[in-house]
Amino acid sequence: MKDEKLRKLAKTSDLQIFLNNLFPAIFQGTAQKAYMESTERYTRIFEDQGKFNMIRDELAKVILREVRNGK
After folding, report:
1. Is the whole-model pTM more than 0.85?
2. Which of 4, 6, 23, 69 might form a disulfide with 60, Cβ 3.0–4.6 angstroms?
3. pLDDT tens, 45-56?
4. DSSP letter, residue 69
5. CB of 65 within 8 A of CB of 14?
6. Residue 57: predicted pLDDT
7. Average pLDDT of span 8-35
8. Distance between CA 61 and CA 59 in Å, rounded?
């Protein structure tokens, strides 16, 4: 939410474009960074592609909603 580029994309993109084209790369990079900082906590997310995708997609929806509501 603090990333200005992410906020701009969330304001100007519809859900499907944000979810399928823009957010996955942002999420992947952020998740990898967090993983390196706390390996044990994130291991389960990276081991299960379905879980990874579900968390990514739900987080994208929340970010889009929050940014559009001015938070």
Report:
1. no
2. 23
3. 788 899 889 999
4. T
5. no
6. 94
7. 85
8. 5
Separation CA 55–CA 8 (nearest Å) = 21
CA-CA distance, 64 to 8, in Å (whole number)? 10
- pLDDT at residue 71, as a whole number: 67
The model's confidence at residue 62, banded by pLDDT at 50, 70 and 90, is very high
Please count the other Cβ atoms lying within 10 Å of the Cβ belonging to residue 53. Answer: 12
Residues 6+ apart with CB under 8 A from 56: 23, 24, 27, 31
Which of 30, 28, 19 is CA-nearest to residue 63?
19
